[in-house]
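Subject: complex prediction, re-run

Hi both,

The earlier run crashed halfway through, so I resubmitted it with identical inputs.
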Amino acid sequence: MAWSRLTPAGRALAVLLPVLAVGGALTTILLATFGGAIAATIGANLPIVRFLVAAVVTFLISVPVAFLLIYMEMKIIALMNLRIGPDRIGPAGAVMSVVHGLKVLMKEDYTPPSVDVPVFTLAPVVVYLASFMTLLVIPFAPELTSMGFELGLLYFFAIGGLSVVGLMMAGWSSFNKYSLLGGIRAAAQAISYEIPLTLSVVGIVILTGTLSLPKIVAAQDGSFLDWFIFRQPLAAIIFFIAITAEANRTPFDNAEADQEIVAGFATEYSGMRFGFFFFAEYVNVFIVSALFSAVFLGGSNPPIHIDVNPQILIDLSALGIGLPLIAGIAPVIGTLLFAAPIWFASSRVKGWQALVAGFLIFGGVSTAAVGIWAFVMLPPVASLIWFLIKTFTLVFTFVWMRGTLPRARIDQLMGFAWKWLLPASLLNIFATAFAVLIAGR
Amino acid sequence: MDRRLAALLQEKFGDRLLTPVRQRYDESEIRVALADATDTLRTLHDDPAFRFEMLIDLCGVDTGEEMQVVYHLSSSTSGDWLRVIVPGLDRTAPRIASATFMWPGAEWMEREAYDMFGIIFEGNRDLRRIYMPDDYRSYPLRKDFYLADDASRSPAAGVRNMERAGTPADATAATTLRKSPGV
Amino acid sequence: MTQQMRPSLDDPRVAIPAESSWYEPAPIPQTERQAEFLTLREGEMFVNMGPQHPSTHGVLRVIIKVNGEKVVDLDPVLGYLHRGVEKLCENADYHQAICYTDPLEYVASLFCEAAPVAAFEKLMDVDVPRRAQYIRVLTMELNRIASHTLFQGWMALDLGGITPILWAFIERDEIVDMLAALTGQKLLYNYYRIGGVNGDLNHEFMSRLGTWMSRAAAQIDSNLALINENEIFVRRTRGLGVLDAKTALKMGVTGPNLRASGVPFDLRRDRPYLVYPELEFDVPTRDEGDSLARYLVRMDEIKQSIRIIDQVLHEMPDGPVMAKLPRLLRPRPGRAFGAVEGPRGVYGTYAISDGTDQPFRMRIHDPSFVHLQLVGPLTKGNLIADTMAVMASLDPVMGGVDK
Amino acid sequence: MPKIPGTGLLSGMRLTLTRFFQPKRTVMYPEVKPDIAPRNRGRLELVTDEHGTLKCETCFQCAQACPIECIDMGGTDTKGRFAVHWGPAEQYAERREESAMRRSGRTVSDAAAATGATINVAKVDEILEAHDYDPHHMLAILEEIQAAYGYLPVDALKRVSRATGAWYAMVYGTATFYKHLAFEPGVTRSIAVCRCANCLVSGAGSVMGTLSYEFGTEFGRAIPWSNLRLESLPSHVIGAPSPLVVIDGEPQRDLSAKNAASWAAALAGRYAA
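This time it finished cleanly. Structure:
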């Protein structure tokens, strides 16, 4: 029978092709008939489409973010160890993490026998999903929030807490004692740090009266003294420690403590399934840093408002047909302008070298000019840049801590959470409420 | 080298010592019979005159005719070092009382002596192989243990398997053992 | 689907499918102790660490009986690195035996050479020239510093800090390189000879040593500042695995681990060898006896070693570095026990000569072997993470443990 | 531990940040080679003198002394008879009886072993038993073996080396050192050609070449059709002419580089008759 001789891919195709053929035909017919209605429906509930698009986009940006953070971790820790770190692939080894990703892709994706296969396979997906779905509510800039809904903060804690489920699934299904210990450690740690994490922001919620992250960011508008890190220092400290534990970072990385339980919940994983855990960890780092900078560091607000309202008002529409002409001619003229001095400067420079150099210089200059123009003229770009600066400073801090601190023991960890952070956060809430009661908002 | 220690040892266990106290460099050495070993060690450990509280080393020796167990003790009060040799263990079934009743740290050293020589220490709670696998048969440090690549001293050199537990058939008394009457 | 089930090793009440049950078979208990170790009570399970575990130094296998995270009992399994060094030495002549003892402790090889050399010199009544004695002290103290520096890095690494080990390796590599310039080998310097040392001090060694000494103390101090003051490190090691003096003496503990329990026992002081009686140095001791004390005692010894090196460099006499000896060494029958104070404790060698050119019996005593017994008693009732901390603080080297 | 909690962590963070900006210690290996101290004895190599010829004379002392048998060398002895190979036997896929020769060198391309039939070593064992397997009596053992067999079979040498534990090269060196120990059966007489400078000047070299060609053998080997062995004379006989050829001690007068071939043919004819 031919079916038995088909490869799995072949069988899938044998099923799919007729379905596609029939389905394609049907869809065309349906579109022809109900196209207008469908368009109307989409127009009617646009938020669903927006959500889908936002989810896809966040997923797409989460992978390069993970690559960037992995590279940062490798390089920064290397420099702190008086090493050089990755320096062979790409400029200063910048492509190293991408190569790591490719390596992980090419490795054998081994499923040990006696694991609970569906749970084992699903666990990395859950973890990664939980981490990048929280990206939805991150307010990169006032206009650059993919889903700025009202309960953003709550959504963040809820979805972020889901990753524990994934870790538990991985630890339980791996049929390995290290994995089991790692999963249970991760669960205990995450659950006990969720509480101070959530309670520490209650003070801010009291102050701002909202749970939506864009509004919290907007509430910190003004100079850097309006940031909540200065108005709620205790909450900031608690929050920082709690997100360190949430992201399983040193000194709270007991879940994958490689000196004690080999790789924790990821012991039995290999190939891309391990890669998902790996990426999720770094995406988590980025997300918690972004959240901290949004909630406590004023998010996309510049530290000091320099009120520049430049008068460079180029009315591009006035140019009419001249616009494409300028757009087409400007590179040529600019290249020649920059190439000429180089070419005249010395006789040893060949013409093409001068042209290439001129083009590069023109490219740089024009990019810088456009950047500055955008920074000045387009508020979203400016606020995005401010946001990223703050976020990556925090990411650097996390990597820095990883390069410095040893690991806390699990019982000290839990004791710290329950004995110190929880009362401190409650105290913070009462203090804030009292102050609000006294002074009014 | 402490003459006082020698005199003390002589007058403490004068009758027990098989040979007079030997002293060379900073080491003193006494030999006691198998029966007296435990009492001697306990006296050396508890007697305020000696206070040999540290068991530096415990090892077995195969002289070719007999087995020995050698203790190296160090006094925590005076810096004296003492070597207690218990000779005369039967090569076929060496047995001696364990020293773990006084030095729990001797447990693994006794395990090693058992593993390497087959000396059975009565009273050791955990007397089993420590280096060699559990299903291992022979005792490597015995003198009649042959190494294939040891062409120096055994007619069994060149046998295919790496070691041979017992004396090979074609071995003669002149060549089986490297006997050392002096030890 | 029908498949026969078998009880799990950890919990006989749990049945697991037969095809998924490729454990190692349950070992048959041979001794009373092993039988009591292999019986699992309610809620206990075995966790097997090693021989390929990130934090067991070398190839050590530790079977841990845990109740949740709490270590109930623990059984180290040795022998993965067993080379039969004693047998090899019995079949080599006296010069070759020294070379065999070298790889015992790949971290502090010179001490493993010094012990048999001392024993052989006693057997043959050899007088070592004073310059050779000074060179031995110099190289040994350098090696001690290298070993302790590496220990600091390993300790921090086992507690989860990744940076100190690399800083430690910088210092250690400098020492190793200068010793390589002196002895000709980088790790297993086969340098000590019966009656002296192999080769006099040379220019490369002295220049490297000078540049290193000029900044060693400050550099090591700044490295220590990373974790000595660190709350996490201190909280994890203070009061962990407390070993009181009486137990330590009964367990045969020596070296820094014993001094950390308050017993000032140091062979360099109590049983002087080479030129140590002429040198000024303190024997750092601590009374706590916990992991932190064991760590800090070693860190203090680094400073003392630097002191000793300073004095040795100033008082180094001239003269030959080898005694006049025949090519073929045949000591008269006798016994000798040579012992030196190493970075881990007393390295001893009990050599028996029967008049031939090969030692009749050569017993090698390694302190790591004794100290590894303590891991069980010291970690009972603690957590899995503490097992690593205690093991690191005892600082065993498996090459010496397995011989 | 500091009084204020957290300061220890912060001081550590400060330290790592300072190290972050300090110069790095990495040696970029393939580009930058670390400087190896001149005293480094990492690699074994044979030294050559100023003429470019090897100084090693294959005395095997290094290979004997190497306790871990990392030195492995081969060579030909002065008589061109044996090529002795030294080293761990497993490198040469010989485990069974040859591994006894692991420290003792094994014989490669052994002419005597090729020609001589394998012998019954019972007598050798008796001799060894009589001498209590003592390598110090090597010369006596070899003499008795020669008396027993008429010559020294290679199997007997191997047996001696294996039983006494004396290294094969030692046994073999003893055997080759003494003139009265022979390796071929029935060789009683010898033709020796002097190799002193005087003789070489007056054409001893061509004489040697001619003789070895005529007799169909090599120097140090027996002449197949006779009880003669072709040897080289260690020292010149006083008052003898050059080139000098000695048969059983008496110098041959009527010989020169010219008539060496005819002389050899005449000698062969005398033996044939």
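Residues 316-377 of chain A form one domain.

- K.
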